[in-house]
Design brief:
With 490 residues, the protein is an alpha+beta fold. The chain has 17 helices and eleven strands. The chain has one domain (7-260, 280-483): Glycosyltransferase, CATH 1.50.10. The protein is 45% helix and 8% strand.
Length: 490
């Protein structure tokens, strides 16, 4: 486990170079933007990447990497670029039988032609499921911000939504409402024993289904399609079932863990099961007791028959707040957990992608001795500065929606967020906006980290915008259609 250090050791000083750092970051960001057929469509994954054939994809436009890019462009009022990006992704949506409805992991223009990667060129040849689930979310946020109802209700957008829903809502051998994926199918794109129903994919599925419903509701207002009504009803029911499932099986607190430890096992038959996944008490890790404290809570990484993954995944939990999957009291329980475990999750370079990392025999067996996922590195407990804005957005959105709730806790969270912001501002320029950081405290630049990584740069700019420029813009991240004035005329 990581060496512990006191809260006092985490304090950082403000920098007088804030304006210069922000200006430099904005210049780097503008250099990441690329054109397709002469039109700006998004950002490359990183600047100044090595020109080796097997590493050239850092010069491609990745859908997942462009999520913060598109949000930042929306906050700047550069809506046309976002629409272009969404349109190009629609043009590249797969029509092949096995992958029909899948959006590309990345694309690049070569010799006047668009080349898309659906996983056939990736390490391990795994399709990025998160890329497809992010597209409706970005589309809805674009429509909400730009008020471009015509684009949302267009035949090509609605057809793209239906193709994606056909893909994720089709019948399977499983009766649970989750989406099952292989290892390496999302941001964690190297073997990390996250196959099955990993938290990030399931929370993204929730955000995807909410956004699809919002887009279909806009189309429903201008048409009388019975098929659309049926699909909307089915998607709403799936959305409800998915949320109920995740809150029942993934949400843990000290109280729920005590109940889980005492549940019966080997239950067979049609009666109501108390332990549906036959989880033995011996699989509950000893570190969990102190991690949860008394009032903390979080969504675990995975639930599989007899094999729950109790690791903490930062992105999945942050998105659960932003997408409204967690209730307001649960969000505050999550904030308490982050505050309590600040030395683990924030350390010197906020924030850690997952905790704890796999080590020794577990690392060898479950990652295939992957040298990039060495303990405390990359996706195995590495620190990713691009993740901080997700948590920051969750904190600021919660504060805006619940201004009177637990003022002491929210004051502590805001103070921690402010210090994390200064920590990044002081370090990232010196570390050339590196992709990730290694070690228990996140002090060292990642062994294979790319420099001038786009989502590191734009993640910092997003957090700066929400903290310094226009805090009320955090409402852009809210998926609730009831808080989208002017779009729905009832």
């Amino acid at each position: 486990m990581a060496p512990q250090f006191s809260q006092g050791q985490l304090r950082v000083r403000p920098s007088s170079r804030e304006e210069a750092v922000v200006a430099s970051a904005r210049e780097h960001f503008e250099r990441t933007l690329v054109r397709v057929n002469g039109t700006l469509v998004g950002s490359v994954a990183a600047l100044e990447h090595p020109r080796k054939s097997h590493e050239a994809n850092y010069g491609e436009v990745f859908l997942r990497d462009n999520v913060p890019v598109m949000l930042y462009l929306l906050l700047q009022g550069r809506h046309e670029i976002v629409r272009n990006f969404l349109s190009v992704c629609l043009d590249l949506q797969s029509t092949k039988y096995q992958t029909r409805g899948v959006f590309p992991t990345s694309f690049v223009e070569e010799n006047g032609q668009l080349l898309a990667d659906y996983g056939q060129r990736s390490i391990g040849r795994i399709t990025s499921v998160d890329a497809s689930l992010w597209w409706p979310v970005i589309c809805w946020l674009y429509v909400k911000r730009s008020q471009d109802v015509e684009f949302a209700t267009s035949q090509r957008v609605q057809r793209g939504v239906q193709l994606l829903l056909d893909l994720v809502l089709h019948p399977t051998f499983e009766g649970t409402p989750v989406l099952f994926v292989p290892d390496c199918a999302f941001m964690i794109d190297r073997p990390m024993d996250v196959w099955g129903a990993p938290l990030e994919v399931e929370v993204l599925l929730y955000g995807c289904l909410r956004s699809c419903c919002n887009l279909m509701e806009l189309a429903q207002a201008s048409s009388m399609s019975r098929l659309l009504d049926q699909r909307l009803g089915l998607t709403r029911q799936w959305l409800h079932d998915l949320r109920s499932f995740l809150l029942k099986h993934y949400w843990v607190t000290s109280k729920t863990m005590q109940v889980l430890r005492r549940r019966p096992t080997e239950q067979y038959g049609d009666q109501q099961h108390e332990n549906e996944f036959n989880v033995q008490p011996q699989v509950i890790p000893p570190w969990l007791q102190d991690w949860l404290e008394n009032r903390g809570g979080y969504l675990i990484g995975n639930m599989r028959t007899g094999r729950p993954d109790f690791r903490f995944y930062s992105l999945g939990n942050s998105l659960a707040c932003l997408f409204g999957l967690l209730t307001a009291p649960q969000q505050r329980a999550l904030f308490r957990l982050v505050l309590h475990n600040r030395a683990d999750l924030m350390a010197q370079m906020p924030m850690r992608i997952c905790h704890p990392p796999m080590e020794d025999i577990e690392w060898r067996n479950k990652t295939g001795s992957d040298p990039k996922n060495w303990p405390w590195s990359y996706h195995n407990g590495g620190h990713w500065p691009s993740l901080l804005w997700f948590l920051g957005g969750a904190i600021l959105l919660h504060e805006q929606q619940h201004p009177e709730a637990d003022l002491l806790l929210m004051g502590q969270m805001k103070a921690m967020l402010e210090e994390c912001y200064w920590s990044q501002l002081n370090q990232l320029p010196r570390q050339q906006w590196a992709e990730y950081f290694d070690g228990p405290t996140g002090t060292w630049v990642g062994q294979q980290a790319r420099t001038y990584q786009t989502w590191t740069i734009v993640g910092f700019l997003l957090l700066h915008h929400l903290l310094r420029v226009k805090p009320q813009d955090v409402t852009l991240l809210d998926l609730d259609p009831e808080r989208a004035p002017g779009l729905f005329r009832r």
